[in-house]
């Protein structure tokens, strides 16, 4: 209480901003340190990557003269890049709807009163807070062809020995990664949707039921429109995460066999840190930033996230 | 009749709930089980479903070989970066929440930084760190994690500070408190629940990160997720270490998050769902 001598004045209902110049300095002093640090990831990478992408730096030579759009042209003709885009989209279009639908079904299951519900919900949180790379490692152990439990369970079901090489066999790597991904993030959808469903006014759904609407009719006509904003936000967050998918794939297959499960993020990593194609990787990074920034700004305005 | 139906319905839902929860917990159970198994049990065919005893030699090996240091590294890096990000971020959030500093576009710009793929950020940062000599140092990792955590902290704390009743602040101002005193003596104590929850999630995100640490560490400040991937190789006899190290890095997070039930939905949905 160093400064208590200021006179008491009746300004209780005046908005805080009316305090004038002193506040003006204060509000910018408060944001300045954070903004400076954020620029390290928000501005510096874009500018620096743009510059490097126009040069020709590799492990062998440090050629800093400018070559214009050379690397961007090469990227457009790079089939491995387009395949990485395709793989990423494939993960996205399968995992995202699967997580949404499964999460929704789970939320409906746990919506009504049930003894011990809190315990179930608390346990279902755990996959979400597990490190994604650990989740990948975990499923690698589970999918092991010989010492893992999954082939064991399958062999009980089919009544004969099952020895699927989940992380190597081209026919099974996608299901393996998708199962791990869906395992980890379905509870995320579940938690968000459960919170949204619980906040829906019961009298609305009761009214629909009195009018003779069945469970699913009520759900699609009454409940879903109400929780739609939350559905969009959940899809946005998960969609962006899936677009940069790296950890789970790295833990299970490292993009293999060959480059079969290589995502855009993994290809960027390989280019930059395994093949040391610095400038070429920079061009790829710029393309990702531009595409994503456009998508993010569009989506953020659309979903009105937490205004 | 009605009552019997209802009882049956509840029983079925209960059964479904148990099965679903078992499915989602089984992988975690399997991890813990392996971490307690002897080598013979780990490499038994068909697999052993329950370890014979809770023997701790897999964990002891981590300490004997010095691998546990990577968990300490994670603790240092995630801990310090969380404190820094919370300090700078909460100040910034207060300014945005109370004065609408920068307007909506500024707030959107801040959260959009959170959505850039880590690999795209870390690549130029790596080139910069090579020049600065910051690769494989605490400073390098802490600075990057602080920067990457800030948008999340600002966004979340903005929401929690908006929940603080304006009247409290105004009466404090009338009583002669400075803006800074209002911030530290009124706003922070009232928003302490959100402050704590945001700090925990910020810590968890940094703790769980893999891509930044993979690129920016060699061996001096390797974090535990990177260490786990080092065990994968042609030889599979590191299974015990994979499991024990993963458990060591994961179970504490489970315990901390369990104390936060009320804040979880808001924390993982970027504040969009109040839960």
How is this structure best described in words?
- The complex is a heterodimer of chains A (307) and B (275).
- In chain A, 69% of the residues lie in helices and 1% in strands.
- Chain A has helices at residues 21-42, 44-54, 70-76, 79-111, 117-124, 126-129, 132-142, 149-158, 173-198, 202-210, 215-243, 247-252, 264-273, 278-303; strands spanning 56-57, 62-63.
- A two-stranded antiparallel ribbon of chain A has the order 1-2.
- In chain A, a hairpin with a 4-residue loop joins strand 1 and strand 2.
- In chain A, helix 13 (264-273) packs antiparallel against helix 14.
- Chain A starts with 20 loop residues before the first helix and ends with a helix.
- Mean pLDDT of chain A is 86; it is low at 1-21.
- Chain B folds into two domains: 2-55; 64-268, Orthogonal Bundle (MetI-like fold), CATH 1.10.3720.10.
Condensed summary:
The complex is a heterodimer of chains A (307) and B (275). Chain A has helices spanning 21-42, 44-54, 70-76, 79-111, 117-124, 126-129, 132-142, 149-158, 173-198, 202-210, 215-243, 247-252, 264-273, 278-303, and strands at residues 56-57, 62-63.
The overall pLDDT average of chain A reads: 86
CATH architecture title of the largest domain in chain A: Orthogonal Bundle
Write down the domain tally of chain A. 2
Portion in strands of chain A: under 5%
Q: Class of the largest domain in chain A in CATH?
A: Mainly Alpha
Characterize the overall form of chain A.
globular
Oligomer: heterodimer
What's the CATH architecture of the largest domain in chain B?
Orthogonal Bundle
Major sheet: arrangement of strands of chain A? 1-2
Structural class of chain A: mainly alpha
Poorly predicted ranges of chain B: none
Q: Based on DSSP secondary structure assignment, what is the total number of beta strands of chain B? A: 0
The CATH homologous superfamily of the largest domain in chain B is termed MetI-like
Please name the fourth-level CATH homologous superfamily of the largest domain in chain A.
MetI-like
Distance between the termini of chain B: 36 Å
């Amino acid at each position: 209480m160093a400064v208590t001598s200021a006179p008491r004045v009746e300004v209780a209902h005046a908005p805080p901003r009316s305090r004038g110049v002193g506040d003006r300095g204060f509000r910018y002093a408060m944001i300045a340190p954070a903004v400076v640090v954020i620029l390290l990831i928000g501005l510096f990478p874009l500018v620096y990557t743009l510059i490097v992408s126009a040069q020709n730096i590799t492990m062998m030579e440090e050629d800093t003269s400018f070559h214009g759009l050379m690397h961007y042209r090469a990227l457009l003709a790079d089939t491995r890049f387009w395949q990485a885009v395709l793989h990423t989209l494939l993960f996205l279009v399968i995992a995202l709807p699967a997580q949404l639908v499964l999460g929704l079904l789970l939320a409906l299951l746990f919506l009504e009163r049930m003894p011990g519900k809190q315990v179930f919900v608390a346990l279902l949180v755990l996959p979400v807070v597990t490190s994604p790379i650990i989740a990948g490692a975990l499923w690698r152990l589970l999918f092991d062809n010989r010492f893992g439990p999954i082939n064991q369970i399958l062999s009980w079901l089919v009544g004969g020995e099952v020895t699927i090489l989940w992380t190597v066999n081209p026919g099974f790597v996608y299901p393996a990664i998708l199962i791990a991904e869906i395992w980890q993030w379905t509870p995320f959808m579940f938690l968000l949707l459960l919170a949204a469903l619980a906040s829906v006014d019961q009298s609305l759904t009761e009214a629909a039921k009195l009018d003779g609407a069945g469970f699913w009719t009520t759900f699609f006509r009454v409940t879903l429109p109400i929780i739609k904003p939350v559905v969009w936000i959940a899809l946005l967050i998960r969609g962006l995460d899936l677009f940069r998918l790296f950890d789970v794939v790295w833990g299970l297959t490292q993009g293999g066999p060959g480059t079969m499960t290589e995502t855009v993020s993994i290809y960027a990593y390989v280019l930059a840190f395994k093949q040391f194609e610095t400038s070429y990787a920079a061009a790829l990074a710029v393309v990702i930033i531009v595409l994503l920034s456009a998508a993010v700004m569009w989506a953020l305005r659309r979903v009105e996230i937490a205004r | 009749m009605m009552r019997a139906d209802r009882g049956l319905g509840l029983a079925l839902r209960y059964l479904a709930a148990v099965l679903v929860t078992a499915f989602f917990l089984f992988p975690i159970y399997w991890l813990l089980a392996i971490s307690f198994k002897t080598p013979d049990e780990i490499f038994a065919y068909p697999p052993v479903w329950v370890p014979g005893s809770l023997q701790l030699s897999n964990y002891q090996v981590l300490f004997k070989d010095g691998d546990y240091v990577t968990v300490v590294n994670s603790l240092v890096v995630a801990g310090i970066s969380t404190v820094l990000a919370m300090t700078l971020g909460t100040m910034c959030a207060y300014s945005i929440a109370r004065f609408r500093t920068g307007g909506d576009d500024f707030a959107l710009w801040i959260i959009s930084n959170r959505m850039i793929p880590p690999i795209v950020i870390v690549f130029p940062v790596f080139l910069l760190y090579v020049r600065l000599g910051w690769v494989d140092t605490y400073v390098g990792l802490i600075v990057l994690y602080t920067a990457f955590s800030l948008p999340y902290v600002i966004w979340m704390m903005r929401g929690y500070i908006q929940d603080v009743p304006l009247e409290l602040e105004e009466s404090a101002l009338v009583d002669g408190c400075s803006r800074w005193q209002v911030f530290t003596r009124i706003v922070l104590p009232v928003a302490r629940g959100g402050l704590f929850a945001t700090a925990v999630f910020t810590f968890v995100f940094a703790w769980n990160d893999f891509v930044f640490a993979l690129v920016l560490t060699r061996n001096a400040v390797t974090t535990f997720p990177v260490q786990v991937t080092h065990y994968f190789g042609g030889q599979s006899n590191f299974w015990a270490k994979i499991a024990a190290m993963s458990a060591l890095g994961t179970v504490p997070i489970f315990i901390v998050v369990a104390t936060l039930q009320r804040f979880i939905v808001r924390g993982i949905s970027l504040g969009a769902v109040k839960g």
